[in-house]
């Protein structure tokens, strides 16, 4: 088994996604890997002309905050349902590992809201490392 050289980090700009990105940066630095940060927004679930611009600004800010970490960081903005888009992007870019946050919802909240991380784990073309929130109350 080869160690990953390209890591995909999906983000929804939540504190948990930020923790996953920071974890991936530490991991990538140790492995000599590059990182692509992707945000997928579902056009059917959102409205407004500024969605794409706001998402790109948030991606740019997330990467700018982490410049100088000694890791190659790229951003990618995709329109589509994150459940499908994240595994598709992993295939497209040849990611060898996905590092993503999980909100750790259980019970009725999980049933109603679902779990993007769980679906990605089941459909990804590569291993998936999930990062739980440091403070479970943030989830």
TrEMBL record:
Xref: SUPFAM superfamilies: Adenine nucleotide alpha hydrolases-like
Domain UspA: residue ranges: 6-131
InterPro entries associated with the record: Rossmann-like_a/b/a_fold, Universal_stress_UspA, UspA
Domain of life: Bacteria
Pfam families: Usp
Record-stated family: Belongs to the universal stress protein A family.
Name by which UniProt lists this protein: Universal stress protein
Species of origin: Pendulispora albinea
């Amino acid at each position: 088994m080869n160690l990953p050289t390209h890591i995909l980090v999906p983000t929804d700009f939540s504190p948990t996604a930020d923790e996953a990105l920071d974890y991936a940066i530490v991991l990538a630095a140790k492995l000599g890997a590059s990182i692509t940060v992707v945000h997928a927004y579902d056009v059917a679930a959102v409205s407004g002309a500024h969605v794409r611009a706001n998402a790109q600004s948030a991606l740019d800010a997330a990467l700018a905050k982490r410049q100088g970490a000694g890791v190659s960081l790229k951003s990618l903005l995709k329109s589509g349902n994150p459940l499908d888009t994240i595994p598709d992007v992993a295939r497209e870019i040849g990611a060898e590992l996905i590092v993503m946050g999980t909100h750790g919802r259980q019970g009725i909240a999980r049933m109603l809201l679902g779990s993007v991380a769980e679906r990605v784990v089941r459909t990804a073309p590569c291993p998936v490392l999930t990062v739980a929130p440091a403070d479970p109350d943030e989830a």
